Amino acid sequence: MSPAMAMNDQRSDNDIPESQYEKGVKHLYENGDLHRVPKKYILPASDRPTTNIMEDSNVDEKQKLQLPIIDFADLLGPNRSQVLQSLANACEQYGFFQLVNHSISDDVVSSMIDVCGRFFNLSFEERAKYMTTDMKAPVRYGTSFSQTKDSVFCWRDFLKLLCHQDFFPHWPASPVDFRKVAATYAEETKHLFLVIMEAILESLGIREEEDNILKELDNGSQMVVTNFYPPCPQPDLTLGMPPHSDYGFLTLLLQDEVEGLQIQFQDKWVTVQPIPNAFVVNIGDHLEIFSNGKYKSVLHRVLVNEFKSRVSVASLHSLPFNCTVRASQKLVDEANPKRYMDTDFDSFLAYISTRETKKKDFLDSRKLT
What we know:
By secondary structure, this protein is of the alpha+beta class. The chain has helices at 3-14, 18-21, 25-30, 72-75, 80-93, 106-120, 124-127, 178-203, 213-218, 285-290, 345-352, 361-366; strands at 64-65, 69-71, 96-100, 139-143, 157-162, 221-229, 241-244, 250-255, 261-265, 268-272, 279-283, 300-302, 310-318, 324-325, 343-344.
């Protein structure tokens, strides 16, 4: 970089007022020729990623991970017992798996990615209509992980939708097909989640007549979070999302073709290779509590790259917000004592509203031993 360019970069960085960061990284990206990452987004050296995933010469192929693949069609067929064993192994050893041949059509999947991309391409003024720091809002547009708590921002804007038909009228009216596409997607992912959870309960040795959890989940909470990661001039200095675990029982993640998701596997960060139209499914903190630690939520993070934007859609599922999450009595005995305190959504909100969320801190705060 020439001295003149360096001076221009320094001046442009210093000229960005703090209030501009709160408008989102997409706003910064589309309103200036960013040649470097602003200071607000630069992570401490110990927290930075070590590779640029878009430069093949810098990627160690050993750092790429093919997650266990669960064939949904086989799960519903005569090979169910074998698939249940594969599912149990995936939940115990990885905390993640890829779901293929699921019941959601390619058209529903591609339409959701497309309409979310078009939402983020709206003007800032249109997107800003949904900006709020109220975590209970039915629709919330924001940036970073928590723009009110993060000391360093991450390279990500998001749109969060609470999924209940009473909330649909509050969802964005633009693009004009957004509500229809998103509602269809939410309904179909909810059904898919329940079928997967039924299989997970079976893999844990829990029958529905012994535990009413599936009925509670049928009336449970669902949040769809769509994420937008713009190209980043210095992807080795920042992250799209920091290491974290998910709050609920399961997350069903839909990715576009651009790599970015990494999980912590055997104490190393490894990149998950996308499979077209497949869902990446991961264990959340609530399932770890419910399974009494048999199935564990796993830290994951998101890398960004210099050349391409990336869109993902996460559907997060749990019990109703007013319910208590506790370990299944079927999985607690003298040899396996209860490992976590009971918890609820209000406890979670109270925790994250007072501190910067890091890794699995909330779940760690629930541990009894």
